[in-house]
Design goal:
Largest sheet: 6 strands, mixed
Structural class: mainly beta
Strand order of the largest sheet: 2-10-9-4-5-6
Radius of gyration: 13 Å
Helix content: under 10%
Shape: globular
Distance between the termini: 40 Å
Strand content: over 45%
Order of helices and strands: EEEEEEEEEE
Number of helices: 0
Oligomer: single chain
Length: 113
């Protein structure tokens, strides 16, 4: 069974940076599209960024120019580099395999003002 596992969250001041990592077990990682989502308290979970198996990327408007998604198929990793963080970026960040039911457990990102 594949299971994404996130890491890299933490507390950072506004304007700072964090890099989130997600690893996925199994030998088929290179075939998966991957996505990063976030959920703020009291809000619905929303897509932040996605990357296809061939490396094409897409971003939510609210992170364009600030966040970068990337992947390393050899290491079975997907990353989310977050820069110019704002308090509104606070939430639990989740990694997901494509549109599947396979989600990670989430990692907390807190941006202080």
């Amino acid at each position: 069974q594949v299971q994404p596992v996130e890491s890299g969250g933490g507390l950072v001041q506004a304007g700072g940076s964090l890099r989130l990592s997600c690893t996925v077990s199994g030998s088929l990682f290179r075939l998966y599209a991957m996505g990063w989502y976030r959920q703020a308290p009291g809000k619905q979970r929303e897509l932040v960024a996605g990357i296809s198996s061939d490396g094409s990327t897409n971003y939510a408007d609210f992170v364009k120019g600030r966040f970068t998604i990337s992947r390393d198929n050899a290491e079975k990793m997907v990353y989310l580099q977050m820069s110019s963080l704002k308090p509104g970026d606070t939430g639990v960040y989740y990694c997901r395999i494509g549109n599947s039911a396979y989600w990670g457990q989430g990692t907390q990102v807190t941006v202080s003002s």
